[in-house]
Design brief:
Layout: H1 2-16, H2 18-23, H3 26-81, H4 88-107, H5 113-144, H6 156-166, E1 170-171, E2 176-182, E3 194-200, H7 204-209, H8 212-254
Antiparallel strand pairs: 1-2, 2-3
Helix pairs in contact: 1-3, 3-4, 3-5, 4-8, 5-8
Length: 258
């Protein structure tokens, strides 16, 4: 990702705005390049921090699953060892115990398919947020160097993202975006104008497509996402069945004849 961010800066400086880049002194050119490399390093560090946070939560989740698994196996074996089919009360006790264990796990946000799905979604969202913030920093460096106009509104990248989602912005080369932006008025009272701007817009999908290893790993994740969704649906169905069984048992336990 860091390399691709620098490459996007290279494309803007040499392809989109070559005349502005050539006006810079050697020191200014080197400073711009160094700033982009530093932003790339920040990007790498933030992604590693996000990975570490997710790995820790995943490890805790797996540890909790390992702790509860022997209890599930034990109850299953006890149920199978009983002669004949367990009566309703015995089965209810087993189900209640397993339900309590799953509540402990769920309340600790550690081990159920819903939480696993949430972790994956938060990780994806975290990556996208980091890429957007680093894109803002990179474009700010291009502005400071005089490559991009200083009159761009502070939130122009957020506006660009919204425009892209609505289909009113044009995607250019990888991790770049072409759009029309209304520039801000200056202190001399000049009117705002509509300007075509080419800016850095780091996208997770494009970063992955540009790297064969990442692309292959994304395919694996996509397949796992499908399996997780199937497990979530089964899990939700089992929770529903358990709630119905507990409600029926509670009804019978509280019922008495007049």
């Amino acid at each position: 990702m860091a390399k691709q961010l620098v490459m996007a800066g290279y494309q803007i400086a040499t392809k989109a705005y070559p005349a502005y880049f050539l006006r810079l002194s050697l020191t200014q050119k080197q400073l711009l390049q160094q700033n982009l490399r530093n932003i790339g390093k920040q990007l790498q560090q933030k992604l590693l921090e996000l990975e570490s946070e997710t790995e820790l939560e995943t490890q805790q989740m797996l540890q909790k699953m390992l702790e509860i698994l022997p209890m599930i196996i034990k109850h299953k074996q006890q149920s199978e060892d009983k002669p004949g089919t367990p009566d309703a009360e015995a089965q209810r006790i087993i189900n209640q115990h397993l339900s309590n264990q799953m509540k402990v796990v769920s309340e600790g946000d550690l081990s159920n398919p819903e939480r696993l799905y949430q972790i994956q979604q938060l990780l994806e969202e975290g990556i996208n947020n980091i890429l957007e913030k680093m894109s803002v920093e990179a474009n700010r460096s291009l502005q400071q160097a005089g490559i991009l106009t200083q009159k761009l509104p502070p939130n122009f990248l957020q506006v660009a993202v919204q425009a892209e989602e609505k289909g009113s912005a044009i995607s250019g080369p990888p991790n770049m975006l072409n759009l029309l932006v209304e520039t801000e008025k200056n202190q001399k009272g000049e009117k705002s104008t509509i300007t075509e701007v080419t800016a850095i817009r780091m996208r997770r999908v494009e970063v992955e497509l540009a790297d064969s290893t990442l692309s292959a790993q994304r395919n694996l994740i996509r397949n796992l996402d499908g399996k997780i969704n199937n497990i979530r649906q089964q899990y939700q169905q089992r929770q529903r069945e358990l709630a119905v069984a507990e409600a029926e048992a509670a009804w019978r336990a509280s019922w008495y004849e007049d």
